[in-house]
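CATEGORY: protein folding

GOAL: derive structure tokens
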Amino acid sequence: MLDPSPATRPSTGLAARCARALLSPWSRLSLLVVVLLSAAAMMLLLEPQRLLATGWPARLSGGGVAVLLFGVAYGVCTVAFVPRPLLNLAAGALFGSQAGLAAALVGTVLGAGISFGLGRVLGQDALRTLLRGRWLKAADGQLSRHGFRSMLALRLFPGVPFAAANYCAAVSRMGYPPFLMATGIGSVPNTAAYVVAGSTASSPTSPAFLAAMGFIVLTGIGAAAVAWRRRHSFGGR
């Protein structure tokens, strides 16, 4: 009897090599890049910023359902790099301060969770091999050991890009629950300011609008000042 196994070994070996190549860290990272670029391109075509001019579709304006749908759309948009301030303003303009804040926070946590999951599954193994710089290793160690506290500080500080914080946390060894909790709590102040500004934009002299804009301006100046000091302190070393 002839042993058929030698004839099947080449195909089996080729299939195994192809599977390993497709599941390799760099292949998964390439897939992550393709997914994010595709999502960003879709957002450029759909132009979600038109919500500020045209409003929410009338057939979807039914109370809690509309708030929930907007929250889901908000989360998807943040994954596609749509700026959160724009989405927060739209939430306030469409739903008012309270419902708009709820929709924006749901979308913030959802978008952060999706980004964290994508980064953890598709990008962590490849990107961790690039953590060679002193500052990158320090950031990774801080997020890995003090995840909730570190992410809470990043969310409270308006100068840190939302997407950058998501993927930095995904590459670290930070857990999912503390990441989501810190995101939800730490995003409240800045999100609320933009939502209130959006809901009261028709009355630019109202105390609520002026207070919200004052908070946004002051936190923006503070973020710029901290970034400037850190840049110069790093440059002097």
